[in-house]
Amino acid sequence: MQRGAFLLSFWLLSLFVLNIALTGCNRSETKSINNQKSKVQRLLTDGNRLMKERRYNDAFDRYYNGFLLARQLNDGCALLQFNNQLGLVKYRQGKFTEAVPYIKEALIKRSFCADSDAYEPHGMLNTIALAYEQSNMADSAVAYYNKALVAIDKLHQNAKRAGAARGMIYGNLGGLYERENKYSLSEHFLKASIAINNRPGYDVNDAITAELKLAKLYLRTKRNKEADSVFIQAKEHLERQQALHDVNAMSVKDWYYLRWQYFDKNDMPLAAYSALKRFNQLKDSIEFTTKGLAYADMEKSFQVSKQHQQLVLFAKDNEIKKISIALIATLVVLVIIIAVLIALSLQRSKKHNTRLQETLDALERSQHFLQGLLNNLPIILYQIDPDGKITNSIGAGLDDVPDWSNDQLIGVNAFELAPDLTNAFRQAMGGKAARAVNAFAVNDDKFYFDTTVLPDQTTAGGIIGFAVDTTAVNRQAIRLTELNKFKDKILSVLSHDLRAPFSSIIMASEVLKLKSKHISGEELGMIMLGLRETASKSIGLLEGLLLWAQSERRNFVYHPQLVNLHNNIAEANGVYLYAQQRKNISLQNNIPTGLTLMAHHQMLLFVNRNLISNATKYSPDGGIISVSARADNKEVILTITDQGAGMTAEQINQLFKIKDKPVPDNHHGAGIALSICHDMILQMNGRIWAESIPGYGSMFCYALPVINQ
């Protein structure tokens, strides 16, 4: 009787536990949906931020993940937003044909979203038309511009907004017709756009864009007087917008470009040159600003595909989890049954209890043994959860890394801590083992770890990894690489820059040997002066090479001293007086006699010798070499100017670089000496540069501190 009552109570308890588990399952599902909706909004916000930063591939990644999640939730408004943003990303990247399907899909999804006022159809139709126009599909572009105009006509509730939108599309149509040589249509739409946007409260920048397109049309059709009138009107608008700090830099650049063409066609060379110069300055400025941002992204289509697969697996995991919760509830009941049976069994057998305790003790001893072993091994063993956070870390691999410990790793995002392991982490989350070497800096020191990551079989999407400290090996490899580069520089100097002077000495010696009886005293004196100059140059180069070699060593300590710059130039020029006399070259030392600076005397002498040598070599007969300097409270800037043939920008870019192969001798910087000069100036906490215009000579400059830094 008591046994029956016990079993009945037991089964009622089991049913109660099962009911709690199923209720928890429903609550968990509702919470999961809310979490996913929050994640959709976060992905949209992150994508918008990345778009503003012009990190387009990263933005596409966020939008695409959000799109997949919104499709899983069947959220029509979210699908509208993500399709539109995906299309805009592709458009900004210049992938115009890829942008069109996304925008069209957004138009379709608009009908499934009750709150779609923020995404007006004429704006999306205009974007599609622009994409077709950029893809040279003029007929399709015109068709969609007209569709956009039809959509604008339905904006009866806001006439001003409809007018502004119409003015923008008129301007786009005018530009398209101008490129298609349909000048009458182009002029009609551009004037209509200007008339709309010139009104108060409308977008003046759109009016400026249309005015520039109209000026271009007039230039193409040789209507120069009308073009000049439009130029003046556009300039007034640009100056007004500049005063309001709301001017488009591209419009200013285009104005100077078209103005240059106008002056050029009207035989006004000075004005044309001024406009072209300003255009190039603005062009360079804009390209410099956007060069590192606009299109520095890598293609991530493979990653997007993999993430898509992971999201599909995630959806399947959710279904499996629902079944798993029910199974867990059943297992809980079974565990209770087993626990009761164990309790009954333990009551019957103290011997079994003793054996169980011995087993638990053995397991505990094994755990302590493994823990002690891991804490003394030179590795890091860690776990990462599906969100990328480190949840556990043991091992002695961080003992040699200052300010870091295993406890500090807990809770840190692994992707942010080791970005160079991102691909390996994602591969492990996808179910495959991966191996990579990562490096991170601590207090100006780099530490290297050889890392292997594996899928965590106990946690879906989790990672188990271990990293071996290979810092010593990697540092040794880096040092060997530096020594090899240094050796190559030494060999390059010895094989190229010292070969020519020694060859000259040998040839002169052969001449003296073979024709000594037929050489006059004057000729002999000239040969001896030439030999002295060549030998002096070689010795100077060797001295500079030794100084440079010492400065390249890690234990080199730079000790600056007070140097009289005027006297240093005079000393450096003494070697080249004979060569200057032969070419009737005059060197003007315009440096004040009392001007001093902090530098290494021998290094500075080497630099000045090489700069004067180049100026002497490339100056024409009867030329003038001017040496001047100016100083302020911080630095002295020296300038050596010659009247040689000058250099191109490409030649200037290669001046201070060590080349794999020597360049012809009629170029500045043919040898290795300028590279050594560059390194020496850097050692003296200075900077060196060159300026030149082909046909107008060259100017070499360096700046050094007045006082010791």
From TrEMBL:
MF GO annotations: ATP binding; phosphorelay response regulator activity; phosphorelay sensor kinase activity; protein kinase activator activity
GO terms (BP aspect): osmosensory signaling via phosphorelay pathway
Reactions it catalyzes: ATP + protein L-histidine = ADP + protein N-phospho-L-histidine
Entry superkingdom: Bacteria
Alphabetized InterPro entries for the sequence: BphY/WalK/GraS-like (IPR050351), HATPase_C_sf (IPR036890), HATPase_dom (IPR003594), His_kinase_dom (IPR005467), HisK_dim/P_dom (IPR003661), HisK_dim/P_sf (IPR036097), PAS-like_dom_sf (IPR035965), Sig_transdc_His_kin-like_C (IPR004358)
E.C. code: 2.7.13.3
Keywords: ATP-binding, Kinase, Membrane, Nucleotide-binding, Phosphoprotein, Transferase, Transmembrane, Transmembrane helix, Two-component regulatory system
PROSITE patterns in the cross-refs: HIS_KIN, PROKAR_LIPOPROTEIN
Residues spanning the membrane: 323-346
Histidine kinase domain span: 493-708
Xref: Pfam families: HATPase_c, TPR_8
Protein name: histidine kinase
Record lineage: Bacteria, Pseudomonadati, Bacteroidota, Sphingobacteriia, Sphingobacteriales
